Structures are given as C-alpha cells and as structure tokens.
Amino acid sequence: MSSHSLAVPSLGLPIARMRSVFSADDVERKLAKLQQGHEREHDGLRSVYERMLERGPQRFAVKPSGVPDMAPLYGQLPNFGEVLDDVKRHVALSQDSQDHLELTPMLLLGPPGVGKTHFAHQLAGLLGTTMSLVPMSSMTAGWLLSGSSSQWKGAKPGKVFEALVDGQYANPVIVVDEIDKASADAQYDPLGALYSLLEHDTAQRFVDEFAEVPIDASQVIWITTANDERGIPEPILNRMNVFQIDAPDLEAARQIARQIYQGLRGEHDWGRLFAEEPADDVLDQLASLAPREMRRALMTGFGNARLSRREAIEVADLPRNGAGKTRLGFLQ
Known about the structure:
5-stranded parallel β-sheet
C-alpha cells in the first residue's frame, strides 16, 4: 500500500505523510458483489463499504520531525525511564530518512495504578497521533480486535478496523489493556488476531472478519499491559519488548504528584488563582495514591481551597485516605 510525502518538517512539527490503509478497488469489488443481491441482512456491510469509499484510503502517518525533548515525560513518568529510552531510540532511527516510525510492540508489566495507560496517552501525544483502548478483561472472543462475521446478528468491525478506517491516522497507538485477563473458550482465542497483527509483514494485509477487506495495520503502535505475564502465550510474548514497570519510590511519587498539580493548574484559567508549587505535606499525602487518583484528589483539593478563598491546597482539602481511593504505595 502506497505512501507519499505531505509536509516538510518545520519548527518541531510532526512530519506527516499519507499512506493508504486499504485498496479502494478491493472495496468497490466487494460492494458491487453485494449490490447484485437484495438481502437486507447485508445492509450493515454495504454501509461500511460505502463509508470506506466516501472517506477514501489515505490516512496520515506521522512522526516527530526530530528527536523531541522528552525531559518533561521523564519527569512526569519517572518509573518509565527504560521504556522512554526505547521510544527515543526508535524515533532517532526514523530521522533524516523516508522511513516511517516503527516501534517494536511493547508489554508494560506491573501492578495496577502505576500509570501504564497514562503512559500510552502521553506517548500518543508525543508522536502526534491518537490512542485507542481495547480492554481485554471482559473479552470472551477475538471479535473485539478482529471483528465478527457479517453472518452473525449484531456483527460489526473490530477495534483495529475502526482505528484505521474511521480514524485519521495510519499509525495510531492501540493499547491492549490487561492482556493477561483475556479469557478463551473452546471456540475462540481472544488473542488470535495478535499473532498476525504484531508481525510487521502479516499486519500489512490484516483482514477484519466483518469487512473481509485487507487493511494495512503494519504502522500501528502496539502497547499491551498486564499484571502477570504467566497468562500470556509465549508466541505473543516473543513478539514484544517486555518492560517491568515498578511502583515509584517516595521521591518519584512526589514528583508525579507535583507534575499533575502543575498540569491541572496550567490547563485551567482558575489555575492562576493558586500557588505555583504545592506544599510538601500535600505532596506527601498524594504520594501514597496511584497517579489516576492523584488527579481526582487534587481536583477535590483545588475545589475545597477555592471555597475557602485560599490560594494554597492544604492536606485537609484532600479526600480522606480509604474513601474509595486506590492506594499505590511506594518502593523503599
């Protein structure tokens, strides 16, 4: 599937090239065959083909125009240093060339709440693309990734098809969350589609079971997350770089809390009403929480401080520990 240059790197803006993620000729042939019949059960499939042709096959394939300044990410995600080092190496390889950015699929292995999904959001922002989340914990079949046959009632395309055909980018970040929680039964392997999707060559002609049209998924940036690698088949593990993500130590947890505080303050106009730095005892209190809970606790703290007409959050403004919050703890 072809690609051509769209933009010249300038002032740190991403390099954008256009890449075909499917063949319009393939879709037209499928649609023509459907139109020979009049079965109403194919209306959904016919609508998908018409939408594909209306949108066209071209999508943006983006990459940074230079090795970006990742210092803020290292500061915000201090327990992801090894992963960020790997990303930086791949970005450097794609520079000063016509090559697309390729990231080896990665498995982020660690306890809940250490920021694995947050990292994926930040990576998508760094690379200038989008992120889609595929939760595996409730899956009983592989259709969520690869679609279900149009012969089935309520069938629809899978998440990979949606990200590439309905999205804007040929290289979105797709997060397969809690891959170790995927449950398989005798008929379906929920991870079956990954055997081809995680291999660059076979991913170039990935076939969604609903649309039955080859899709170029070779540029997708794959991130999987897990708490325990023992539930992941060895052939899938072998296709990924595995990174152990530990809970941050106390100083790192305080650093994360400070970054979230400053991020919230900078994102909102009301942030100017608050002190530039949070108090040390507030950081100590926040450091015992998972990053996702830090944000919620800080929003409560900002609100309570504002009600009291104070520019500084106090410990009493934060939610009480144990009130439905996830305690992460830190490494000694």
